[in-house]
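Figure 2 data, in text form.
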Amino acid sequence: MKNLNHIIIGSGKKKVIFLHGFMGSSSDWLPILTNFNSEYSFLLIDLPGHGKSINLNYEMYDFEQNSYNIIKIINNTNFQNSSIYGYSMGGRVAIHLCIKYSKYFKKLIIESSSPGLKTEVERDERKLNDLALSGKIINSKDKFNIFLDNWYSMPLFGNIKKSKKYTQLIVNRIKNNPFELKKSLLGMGTGSQKSLWDEIRNISIPTIHIVGELDKKYFGISKEMQLLVPNYKLIPIENIAHNVHLELGAKFYHLLNNIL
């Protein structure tokens, strides 16, 4: 069975795994990682339906199966005992991994993410919303551009459209295959993930949550998590919304370097 596409940068003893958000890819992290010294090595993974992890067997577009496949990659690449960084969707995956496969990780770093929706009613509603949203991801450049414009107009993204990096962000996002994004959304969307709110109490490794204060939704979630996760540190970022690593630019390297 074809596994997830992944690349390794560097050969140092300090190991970090990166998981991108919806419509992203492993290449999102490359501009940041060039700043790190040779002490580090990085494992960058394309989640199902993203980057080069496309045309996979349908069962791989599933939250549980995806986590299992990531563990196989970690074993095959000798990336056990790593720190793991996950943004948004990638953060949900990272939280799940640190609960179910805790022995593989020494530090959990998430950005603008959550342990999922708390109730079955919320998850059912989200599944319906994701189904409706998937219908708007149309395999036409013009219509996909409209979808992207609407997506980044959501309040959680704040003023991202005014960012100097927004144009390049859209250039990167338009490379996605809309059909693949639909499969990802339906198989690994928030509605398809079980609630991890009870289980996050069992995360014993240091957990760092980076959240933009303008992202009211996830900032609120991070404050709730702060009361539940034993070894948890919240890092709020002023005047930034959901996509912290993009909007912070060069400053993000210094933030991440200090955390690691």
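Caption note: The chain has a mean pLDDT of 94.
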